[in-house]
Structure formats: C-alpha cells, structure tokens
Write a structure and sequence with these properties.
This protein has 96 residues and is an alpha+beta fold. The protein has one domain: Hypothetical protein YunC (Hypothetical protein Ta1206 fold). It contains four helices and six strands. A six-stranded mixed beta sheet has the order 1-2-3-4-5-6. Strand 1 and strand 2 form a beta hairpin. It is globular and about 35 Å long. This is DUF1805 domain-containing protein. Pfam families: DUF1805.
C-alpha cells in the first residue's frame, strides 16, 4: 500500500510518501529542491545524479522522520546547508 501526506514548510507544500514493503516501509519526503529518504536511498546514486538528498534511518512514517537526525547527505544537499546530525524538520526548510 502507498500512503501520501501533505506537509507545509515555510508556506510550501511538500509530499510525504510511505510505501509498505515486506520488512520495513520506504519513507520519503519530496521538496522543491530535493528530498529526504529512509535507508533505502542509495546515497551514491543520488550523488552521481547531482541531487540534493539526505538519508534518515530507523523511521516508519513521515511524522516519525521529522524528529530524527540525518545520517548522510549528498554534496548538493551540503551546498544548501544540510548537514549530518541535523533534524529532518530543519533540513526541510533548506529544501523549499
């Protein structure tokens, strides 16, 4: 099953996505300048594609992700000011 949710950050609408998979859900938040995703994200591929992306681990929902810390970022995400250890809710402000 796929569940979507709308988040508002700095008056911009973002798309939260949860895909129920057999052992753990895939969780992503898509913003205008990039995205955050659970550990399913291959950070090397996102880097190769020049995307602003960050990884958050151990989440089961979009709401759960908002208070977790980022564990990996691409170079493009770093250029926007996103860092490892930053809370997802703070990083999203840099992606709108």
């Amino acid at each position: 099953m796929i569940k979507t949710t709308t988040l508002t950050v700095d008056n911009k609408k973002l798309c939260g996505l949860v895909v129920d998979l057999p052992k753990a859900p895939l969780v992503a938040i898509i913003a205008p300048k990039g995205y955050l995703m659970c550990g399913y994200l291959n950070i090397a591929t996102a880097e190769k594609l020049g995307q602003a992306a960050a990884v958050v681990r151990g989440v089961k929902s979009v709401e759960d992700a908002l208070n977790k810390k980022i564990s990996a970022v691409t170079k493009q995400a770093r250029k926007l000011g996103i860092k490892r250890g930053m809370l997802v809710r703070e990083a999203l402000k840099k992606l709108v």
